Amino acid sequence: MIQIHKPGFYSSIQDLGRFEYRDKGVPISGVMDMISAKFANKLIGNPEKAAVLEITMTGPELEFNEETLIAISGAIISPKLNGNDIYNDEVYHIKKGDMISFGKLKNGFRCYLAVQGGFKTETVLGSKSWYVSLTNYSHLQRGKTLEIAKRKEYKVKEHLPGMNHDFNNKELEVYKGPEFNLLSKDQVNQVLSGIFNVAKENSRMAYQLKQQLFPHKYSILTSSTLPGTVQFTPAGKLIILMKDAQTTGGYPRILQLTEEAIALLAQKRTDEEIIFSLKE
């Protein structure tokens, strides 16, 4: 059991998501940065699909009421164990009464706290991922508790390869979207040669970009979308759908981010730069 003393800015339980209900309008949800979340689980011997705590920008304060192993990967948010600095991508033995807290955000935007055996919160439609209207909570609540698995013996692997995930990289790998060919040559040049900045409108639903392409008058029937779909509004704005996004949309889908690109974008903050790199 974990007691939540402070919830942080936006901390939520996520796993790899729910994939079989998109035809019912249910978003995939799940971890925004799959690379970091999987690595945190791997460090303590969890299945990669085990539920983790996704922590955004400002971390929570948590009290552990039982023993476990933890690992933190992703953004560096100055984690502390009982007031002492601890480090990302390391395994820590947690005892009853131990406190985990976080401080200054130093790099990235989201980190992942994994506990041995995963978080034992409610499973809804095959996933433990929190999403408002499907689950009781969308983010941590002060004073609530989280169930975790019982501690088991586990020999930590000392020579596990490091995580290859550079948050300072600006390059997002993309494929052509279904409506890419609607773009004019000038618009293609803008999107593939331009440098874009993340707008303040960024969340688990979507990231908007500050710069706009030349406007257009294209219209399409409402069609399916995925996390990583880049929508192109008539005003020329680019909207990149993320894990909690709707399952359909009526804007041209000009690009599709790879899963690695989604993970990288999830670590970008307002004003940070990105560029698109087209994969053929």
Automatic annotation (TrEMBL):
Name under which the protein is recorded = Allophanate hydrolase subunit 2
Sequence ranges assigned to domain Carboxyltransferase in this UniProt record? 23-280
Gene3D superfamilies assigned: Cyclophilin-like
Q: Name one GO molecular function term.
A: ATP binding
Keyword annotations for this protein? ATP-binding, Hydrolase, Nucleotide-binding
